[in-house]
Amino acid sequence: MGFDQQKEVDRRRTFAIISHPDAGKTTITEQLLLFGGAIRNAGTVKGKKSGNYAKSDWMDIEKQRGISVTSSVMQFDFQGKRVNILDTPGHEDFSEDTYRTLMAVDSAVMVIDSAKGIEAQTKKLFQVCRMRGIPIFTFINKLDRDGREPLDLLEELEEVLEIDSYPMNWPIGMGKGFEGLYDIYNNRIEIHRPDRFDGERFLPLNEDRELEIDHPLKEQSIFSQVMEEVELLLEAGNEFSEEKIAKGELTPVFFGSALTNFGVETFLETFLQFAPKPSEHETKDGGEVSPYDKDFSGFVFKIQANMNPAHRDRIAFVRICSGSFEKGMEVKLARESKKIKLNNSTQFMADSREIVEEAVAGDIIGLYDTGTYQIGDTLFTGKNKIEFEDLPQFTPELFMKVTAKNVMKQKSFHKGLYQLVQEGAIQLYKTYLTEDYIIGAVGQLQFEVFKHRMLNEYNTELIMEPMGTKIARWIDPSQLDEKMSSSRNILARDRFDQPLFLFENQFAMRWFADKYPEVELKTLL
Ligand code: GDP
User: Which residue of 40, 167, 185, 217 is surrounded by the most CB atoms within 10 Å?
Assistant: First the structure.
């Protein structure tokens, strides 16, 4: 047999990389895949210019725009660990999808452009990680270019994100004068472009942080300057604490350059030491499921239709929380207490689908879906029903009225609408009085993808009437009164039949709150 479940769980590391677009997430992902032997050549993951699209770029629209719309899963082994990287779309319009992916990981790596610092999207994604209390590791990228002062960047990180930081390494110069990194954690110097010197990549330091061997770097004033700076930094700064890292209260910070592949390997090695293995998951009834439990359990965090035009199917992505997955096993769907035989599963290196052999807690499996699953569904085996907590929904800000252009297409219109909503591609509402369909999104591009997919996958041309931005607020069904509805605060219901108002603007919402002070207005997240 040779299959030791506990050992397998303990070597899993499942994480996502979060960043603002262009910070270098794709470049660093590619480097990590190279180290793991998952790909052989740089440029495989994304070559916007060369026309080689990312392994994770599946859909037409992604290719047209050169952006990554969907999340995918990449798996490789490195130094005995089995690493699962969950890709997250960088474009801000797809943050909803990104947020959900963050529900399925055990830690996050935040990539920051050293010239730009904390950007809008980084901040939003960081907050979701914070809400989950997962460890966050920071990689400050593009040190081969002139950027901001390292100290300045750490200060901004602490102030804007309200998290303590600990520098794992410190840059020696930057841009053209980038000499290398003082690797604080391993107490050694990592030389940038060692070919300029004697070829030695790492220079060890003694206990007093002195370079004992002769090296041209020693003579450079930047070297002694940096060593003094670090001395001060370590005296005045936060203490290294594994416990605080685990709780997401302290972020270890690494500097480097993904493009020149500098500092990435050391980052990966150190990150894998401190990144958590899969842990317990909470259930709706307040219980906990251990990753070592023999019974299988997992939840659907993403559903995607027709990722590859060659395979016209839907895939439900399941994060395994306990037990092990075996092909052909029978599981129960908590929502319906229904039994399902899992004949087909695919595990991803994006377009080349490999059949899963052994998958345990921390792994992601992709299941072929013919409309069985919904976002947030729990699958389990064993006598005791397991139902994990609901995944958060995110409050949309943009709305459109939708109808099918051709009245004869009602059937496929409803089918597409229903399936894409279930996938979480878009949110759906129906007005109370007129029963119009309204779709809601976090960003404009989500509508375009929706329209494109309705046409290509469901053969339905849509008429979409923009309603602009609205403020969505949910109310308690017991306080519902249709008389409260007007053109400036449209009453609608969501797909769970919960009532909400779509307010025209802040002013309309305040007016409403003054008029009906007893009605509590709630957001999703
Ligand atoms: P993403 O949008 O976060 O996935 O960013 P990409 O990985 O696509 O990188 C955006 C741009 O920054 C590309 O042109 C990269 O070549 C460039 N880039 C990424 N990492 C570095 C780096 O370390 N140094 C420099 N100079 N450029 C980089």
Answer: 167
* Coil, helix or strand at residue 138: strand
Question: Has residue 54 been placed in a domain?
Answer: yes
d(CA 66, CA 86): 19
CA 288 – CA 171 distance, rounded (Å): 43
Q: State the sign of the Cα–Cα–Cα–Cα dihedral 195, 198, 199, 205.
A: negative
| Shared domain check, 245 and 113 | yes
Residue 409 lies in domain: 398-522
What are the binding residues for GTP?
19-26, 87-91, 141-144
Tell me 238's DSSP state.
P
User: How does DSSP assign 275-309, residue by residue?
Assistant: SPPP--EEBTTS-EE-TT-SS-EEEEEEEEE-SBT
Same structural domain, 349 and 461 = no
How many folded domains does the chain comprise? 3
Q: Which of 333, 353, 380 is the last residue of a domain?
A: 380
Lining ligand 1 with CB less than 6 A are 19, 21-27, 46, 90, 141-142, 144-145, 257-259
Residues 426, 325 share a domain: no
Indicate if 367 and 249 belong to the same structural domain: no
pTM for the whole structure? 0.84
Strands 81-86 and 12-19: parallel
Residue 209 lies in a domain: no
Annotated binding residues = 19-26, 87-91, 141-144
Taking CA atoms only, the protein residue closest to ligand 1 atom 11 is: 22
Which residue puts its alpha carbon closest to atom 28 of ligand 1? 259
Centre of ligand 1 to C-alpha 28, Å, is 8
From 19, 26, 27, 44, mutation site for ligand 1 pocket: most ligand atoms within 8 A of C-beta: 27
Give the number of the atom of ligand 1 that is nearest the alpha carbon of residue 19: 3
Q: Is residue 503 part of a domain?
A: yes
Residue 191 lies in a domain: no
Say yes or no: 265 and 293 in one domain. no
Indicate which atom in ligand 1 lies nearest the CA of residue 46.
Answer: 8
Ligand 1, atom 19, residue with closest C-alpha = 24
Measured CA to CA, the distance from residue 346 to residue 316 in angstroms comes to 10
Are residue 508 and residue 407 in the same domain, yes or no?
Answer: yes
- Look at strands 364-369 and 427-431 and give their pairing: unpaired
Q: Tell me the pairing of strands 324-325 and 314-322.
A: unpaired
The residue contributing the CA closest to ligand 1 atom 24 is 142
513 with 436, same domain?
A: yes
Query: For each of the chain's 525 residues, which pLDDT tens digit applies?
Result: 568 999 999 999 999 999 998 999 989 998 998 888 766 555 545 444 333 444 444 344 444 443 333 446 888 889 999 999 998 766 655 557 778 889 999 999 999 999 999 998 899 889 989 989 999 999 999 999 999 999 999 999 999 999 999 999 999 999 999 999 999 999 999 999 888 888 889 999 999 888 888 888 888 889 999 999 999 999 999 999 999 999 999 999 999 999 999 999 999 999 999 999 999 999 999 999 999 999 999 999 987 765 555 555 677 889 999 999 887 889 999 998 889 888 766 554 443 444 455 789 999 888 877 778 888 999 999 999 999 998 877 788 899 999 999 988 899 999 999 888 887 778 999 999 889 999 998 777 778 888 988 998 899 999 999 998 899 999 999 999 989 999 899 999 998 899 999 999 999 999 999 999 999 999 876
Q: In this structure, are 437 and 376 located in the same domain? A: no
